[in-house]
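Minutes, project check-in
Item: structure for the 333-residue chain
Input as provided by the requester:
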Amino acid sequence: MTDAGPPDADEAAFAEAVRAGDPAQFALVTERHRRELQVHCYRMLANYEDAQDLTQETFLRAWRKRESFKGHAAPRTWLYRIATNACLDFLDKRNDRTPVPSELPAAELPYLQPYPDRMLPEDPQESAVARETIELAFIVAVQHLPPRQRAVLVLRDVLGWPAAKAADALELTVASVTSALQRARVTMREQLPDRRLDWRSPATHELSQVERDVVKSYIDAHERNDLDRLTSLLRDDLRFAMLPDPGTVITTAKDSVDGWVSGGLFQPGCDDWRCIATTVNRMPAAALYLRTPGDPAYRLLNLAVLHIAGGKIAELTGFEVAGKPWLGLPAAL
């Protein structure tokens, strides 16, 4: 399968690095693809640290297989093919990464991790669709698919590859790819009933003013220990999860806050908060810092990732994020 269009400067530099057999030169020309390949691996695996590892594995495999690059496909396509198959090999070996049963929700993915926006690709074309294909709901929905259906969906519907190109990358027939895509789309519609399912047309990735205002109010309620204000920000059919603990709770706003209080939050010794507004997965989020008695500093505790609908928090996914420097959050304030 040959990519359409004449070779560009990137392809020429890549071909020269392959011919030269110089690892430093090869690393230089492949490095420019790191961010988009890492997002690709994350969509396949739902785990930032695994995506980092598999991106590095992609570059190692590319170096070992460099002589197989004949210029019939663009370097970017060739690298995506290697990355996809590296992820499939990883999934084949991990018994704990089997597809999530259709009836189980997001919090049944204890390995789910947030993706720092600062590490997303800078390419405007990728950014145009990044929000709807990087949000937690999408990432979780993809994990309900068997690995090869997952790969087909991402290559065809997210990257926009034609069926023949995806079939070549996965060593499948076009008919198999078409069938897998149809089944994958059915599952995605079941998992994302209220979300847009056409990811090929542009979509904004900026937060709305409403989202910014809700995050600001959420932070203010924490720092003031204003439980009434916090309750008013939550929808009465809130979906709450605290990873890696299993189980999504669908609960009322009052029951949610009462449950947090009964668990010790907002009680003496656990009521001195400072928060930072941030974004992960192109979603609004708040990093929560707690100062305990006798400690002069506020320590990073959790990250609350918010899905906001109709001016209220419809989904709140909490992550334990202490010791995860790749998020770019200070460990203490």
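Outcome recorded: The CA atoms of residues 129 and 201 lie 7 Å apart.
No further action items on this chain.
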